[in-house]
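Problem 12. The chain below contains 563 residues. Write out its predicted structure in token notation.
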Amino acid sequence: QGGSLEEERREKMSVPVLLVTLVVLVCVVNVYLHQYLPNNNNKHSEEHLEEHLEEEEERCLALVRDLPDFSRGKMVHIGSSMRNQKDDDELQEASSSSSSSSSSSSEAKCMKRVRNRKEHTPPSFYYFLHVPRCAGRTLNFCLLKSVFPPKDRCLTSYKENSQLDKGALDKLGHACRVQGTHDDLSVLTQLPHKNTVAVFTQIRNPVDRVLSAYEFSLQVATRYHFATKRKKNTNRTATDEVWPWLDLVPIMMESLARREEARKSLSSSLSKPNIWVRQHNASNKSFVYYNRVMNETREDLEGLDDGHLVLGDLDPYDNSLVMSLADFVKLPEVHDLLHNNQLYQLLGITNISKEPGLAKGIRRCCAGAAAKGTYEGTAATSLHRALLKRAERLVDDLWHVSVFDDLEGSHSSLCAASGWDLDQLSYKNGEKIVRTMRDEVDEMEGKEGSRLDQEKLLSVEYGRQNVSVREAFEKCVRQNREKKDVKNKVKFLRQLQDPYGRQILFSRENRAKISKDVLEYIRHHNQLDFELYEMAKSRYNLEEQQCKLNRDDATIDAKEKYI
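Solution.
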């Protein structure tokens, strides 16, 4: 019996041994096949991959080819698309008479744009393609609304799917003729005008723009998060009703809410009275020292016991209170709404495009190219070139291109290029006067003897004020930057603090400390925007320096600096 048990035990042990032996044998055979017979399999895989890349390339390029030219038949073209034989002769002459043919060709193009702008029939409609976080509010609300009388200004339409050319005097048969929105170029399809729309825009360094978008989203989210009761103002459009903030602000609000309980719990457990932090005063840009346990503020720490501790400032871009910048820039929504979206807006392929299917497909192709880690693949390079070729033509044809780097010069050159006199008497630049006009027109309906009232509203003197456009612009900038923005900053610094009282302070100094990896991520995923930014700077610099626009009497003292 003992012998039979031993045999049974050996039989049981032999089963796993056989299984292990079998597995090892399969692995050896597999290695042999891959090592000594690799050619056919690898060759097949490589061919399959190459076919897949070619198919992907053609699919993406087909989407770009199918994308309509939204400017055709709508926009005033002042660039190379208006070229005739005379222009070609000028370009050839410029190229042959200079050692730098590319520079001369660019200069000839620049001179041609200036001439075309002067010779062209005045535009019937001015459209400002307002790229978010490019100081567009200053241009739209402070400059344009001071230059154009209320009767010519369209009602604000920053809400999604708003009518672009809705005016206060439509019922009187007078169409508005100036508008600025966050829409992309596909919105031109809504306009009835033919070849008479002057489109201009303002472009910014893509990294600075993404950082500004992160800061703005957080500041707005904080304001809404801590508001006890939001006041609904039917005469104003709330920030979270405007693209792209209607998608980004709720994300930041949810991030704040998730971290709120942990912050409150830690605040209630504080007991050490010897911990001090620095707090920033946004009103006068000074610092004080603050102790939350003692609820005491001091200008300096002289006279305190040696045992006191001063905590370092919070990293505004990476802390426990809010979503970090590193996480923010990797959000799918940020990839769809911010990265490369300056170029997407110009081409009309944002997620609010009037051609949503094509636009989404092209954005996915671009995102796929960036996700591969480089733009140097065959499909990526072809797609890259196709999109930039379209963008280059549009930049060349725009009525004017401004750059964030030189706001003072940009605003001045726009006025000079458009023939707007900065020393003429300005108009009230608020939105209220346009809404008042609309209400007065509604009240006139069905009433007799309203002709005089109509003539008053249609007069170029309606809304005129006794200050120049220059003075009105400067006042508007001061009110926005020195009062409204400072007020919002004070509120933000007061509301959002860690348990010790440390604040989130956005500044140029703190931007310089952002992780290089994060900045490189932003750069990589905004390569198309960087190309567009260089195009815009090149055109702007040519018109400013080589064409020497006569703007000596049309300068704006806009020395305000923007973060």
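Discussion. The first helix runs from residue 2 to 36. Students who got a different answer should revisit the alignment rule from Section 12.3.
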